[in-house]
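Subject: Interface between my chains keeps coming out wrong

I've been trying for a while to get a sensible model of this assembly. When I model each chain on its own everything looks fine, but I need the whole thing in one frame so I can look at the contacts. Pasting all components below, labels as-is. Any help appreciated, I'm running out of ideas.
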Amino acid sequence: MNEYSFMSSIWKRKEAVISTRDKNNDKYHRILEAAVRVFAEQGFYQSTVSQIAREAGVADGTIYLYFKNKDDILVQFFSYKAKQVFDLFREEVSKADNAVEKLRNLIRRHLDEFQRDKNMAIVYQAETHQNSRSAEPQIREMSKMYLDIVSEIVEQGQADGSMRKDLYLSLVKRFIVGAVDETINNWLHAGGKYDLVSMADPLIDLFVRGIGNTQ
Amino acid sequence: MNEYSFMSSIWKRKEAVISTRDKNNDKYHRILEAAVRVFAEQGFYQSTVSQIAREAGVADGTIYLYFKNKDDILVQFFSYKAKQVFDLFREEVSKADNAVEKLRNLIRRHLDEFQRDKNMAIVYQAETHQNSRSAEPQIREMSKMYLDIVSEIVEQGQADGSMRKDLYLSLVKRFIVGAVDETINNWLHAGGKYDLVSMADPLIDLFVRGIGNTQ
Amino acid sequence: MNEYSFMSSIWKRKEAVISTRDKNNDKYHRILEAAVRVFAEQGFYQSTVSQIAREAGVADGTIYLYFKNKDDILVQFFSYKAKQVFDLFREEVSKADNAVEKLRNLIRRHLDEFQRDKNMAIVYQAETHQNSRSAEPQIREMSKMYLDIVSEIVEQGQADGSMRKDLYLSLVKRFIVGAVDETINNWLHAGGKYDLVSMADPLIDLFVRGIGNTQ
Amino acid sequence: MNEYSFMSSIWKRKEAVISTRDKNNDKYHRILEAAVRVFAEQGFYQSTVSQIAREAGVADGTIYLYFKNKDDILVQFFSYKAKQVFDLFREEVSKADNAVEKLRNLIRRHLDEFQRDKNMAIVYQAETHQNSRSAEPQIREMSKMYLDIVSEIVEQGQADGSMRKDLYLSLVKRFIVGAVDETINNWLHAGGKYDLVSMADPLIDLFVRGIGNTQ
DNA sequence: AATGAATGAGCGTTCATTCAT
DNA sequence: GATGAATGAACGCTCATTCAT
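Reply #2:
Try treating it as a single job with all components included. I did that and got this:
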């Protein structure tokens, strides 16, 4: 269904649920990949365990060798997969010195990763905007992680004089996160047709200069 | 349950499903109010028709006299209720001349209405970030409506010289919508404790001046 | 399946689970009767809710309008049905003055009731000899109730001189209960072919005189 | 787990299912011992093959090298283990001449063995009071075996004049068996706290003299 | 119109059994 | 022989929807 999936390449699970043998790891990942595909297509509650099993090419019962229950699939998705994407962000940020360039790197990488795994993007968008009981803690943690990165960048920008000192920091974080999120959301609703990464520079420009005319 | 509900006061249903007698209208609204409460608490798929009926003080079967099915409750919610909120926005915008003041009015009213009906806010946030929903067309329409208002404002701002001419309009729209949405989202996740409307001015400031230091 | 069932005639449920309308009461009883039949045939854990529903002539879901879950069917069986049988015992006992005649009345009625409702007898036998988690409290209560009746009789017998004073009361209770139980059990294993009530007098004789030769 | 288990000491399996090597024999017994422990704790249908395997320290699949299926574990339990206990009974009976003493020896040994292996007692109690079990034939045979011993004793007692001649033999058997069973059952339900063997003499006294006052 | 008992398809989950290693 | 991952049939239970009253 999805020709390319960065899951298999990037992921290195540290603690296997049941065992760490290659074969099991394979199945664990196959189920998780399948689940994300199904969740993306139908939404979590509309998806059935049987669909995921069929998509993963395993029996229904096999799911329960790797996941405690249906909810746990979502939890693991956020615990291991999406969280690691965010680790990449931090890495990318460290490649730049300038605060604005750090922000640019972050956003570019964010858009890039979400563009490369559209299913992840869909599931992420859906679940982060809900009282999704099961994956709540994972989502909270991820969210905080991302906001912390942005905070650090802005604080650095304020320190080095490239950003305004009279900023309401916690609002700025949401301001940036919200705009990026909505950019992705819009791209998804448009069917993922255009190039998402190309939005990074214009976005940065808006963040930095605003929409006001200051000449 | 909710002392104040703007539904009953604001709403003027044009076409009653079965009849236009007050009594029926009452029941239609009671069910819709109840549904939003339940959806907000549990999410659409977690909510049961029985819960909505109990909350509305009617029998399960009665729901089906006013709504085609469970999905239809959500569809009607977006068709009638939330859409009318957006009509208010347009009205509010027209009260100002200045583009920036129009934007300020829009956002202030947006935050105000969502603060006043938190349940609507929750349902709105959840449903606008998913696909494969029954209310898809309604949401698309609402979304377009809102973005159109923002577009008009920005275009006016560009015309009167208060906003930059080199703006990627469709990105600016998302930029603004996204930031406001995320501000609301954050407020919801924080339990709706602080005053949401007070975020309007700082937000406008960010939109207009950006975060960059330009002295 | 069972031409005669004393359930419908004897039972007068005081608190209906959902409502007290005749129709519901009918269905409640039909399900319970069906359940006892199925449990008797297959054992509790071997029986499926679908079987019970089919036997009762209702849909699977209907069961859950009257019973919390499968376990609850067994619990209700012991709470309402079998318990009432034991109430009859007490009534029967009061009809005699003499301790031995009281015992005879008790045992005769016991054998009679269990003979008349063989399915109840089977379920009773099976569940009282297990660590049956769900109906444990009900069984304990019934058991105590029965043993209390026997105790009273024996104590009266000791008081009026018709029974030995050097009896280990708690052993005597089990001695009597066990013998009667086993008599029923044997009758069940033999397919319920012979007349169970005719065992009452010989049993009483054994209880009173023992097997020893005392001439 | 159980410091003392008479299984390993007493048991001498004649036909090994697959082989007669010590190692296999060990595993066969370990599984059977584990199974009885698990069945006693949870009941047959509540127990899973995995639990038994874990308790026995073998893999799930290993069970099927020694037993045809789950039912077969119960069948073998009655075929080999419990049956041999009853062989002991016969041996014990032969140690006395007097009919009453034979009965006393039988019951004392019965209570003693069941007290020493409480798990066996639990499983035995549960399974002998149900129908539609896989171990039906085994139980029937055991039951007959026990009743035959009692019959012989009573007949001898009648012959030597120590027991009444006007006894309904098949009732007397059940009378004795039932009382002993119930005594054990009660001991189990009380948590096996008191000394079961001490019940033997009072029981014999009841059997022989009855509860009636004959002075 | 209003009810709510009844329905039964469909779900998540369990677990006895198999079989490749 | 021994393993334990994999299977998939079967279960208990839920709930959107219907319809007789």
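Reply #3:
Confirming on my end. The radius of gyration of chain A is 19 Å.
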